[in-house]
Amino acid sequence: MIRIGQGYDVHQLAENRKLIIGGIEIPHELGLLGHSDADVLLHAITDAIIGAVCKRDIGYFFLTRMTSIKMLILVSYFRSFGKRSSRMATN
């Protein structure tokens, strides 16, 4: 069976923030605002993988409502969900 997922992520541009896309910090006067690293590329890829294997979205697994607690960094997204997606794909 072939599974296809579609993901997206958006963040507002803001001063005094790092611009990280695909895990690479890009020198720029503006960065992306978010509770996490706001890496729109990796978050969109993660969202697509999640959608392909279980019909949920990234917010279901990584709560964005937790404003007082730092979100998982981008490597944690892939490590954590890599294990979950393997199990979900077999169900």
From TrEMBL:
A Pfam family: YgbB
Keyword Hydrolase set for record: no
EC numbers, comma separated: 4.6.1.12
Enzyme class: lyase
One GO BP annotation of this record: terpenoid biosynthetic process
Keywords, sorted A to Z: Isoprene biosynthesis, Lyase, Metal-binding
Pathway(s) of this molecule: Isoprenoid biosynthesis; isopentenyl diphosphate biosynthesis via DXP pathway; isopentenyl diphosphate from 1-deoxy-D-xylulose 5-phosphate: step 4/6
UniProt-recorded Gene Ontology molecular function terms: 2-C-methyl-D-erythritol 2,4-cyclodiphosphate synthase activity; metal ion binding
Entry cofactors: a divalent metal cation
2-C-methyl-D-erythritol 2,4-cyclodiphosphate synthase domain segment(s): 2-67
Keyword field contains Transit peptide: no
Catalytic activity field: 4-CDP-2-C-methyl-D-erythritol 2-phosphate = 2-C-methyl-D-erythritol 2,4-cyclic diphosphate + CMP
Protein's recorded name: 2-C-methyl-D-erythritol 2,4-cyclodiphosphate synthase
UniProt organism field: Listeria grayi
Gene: ispF_1
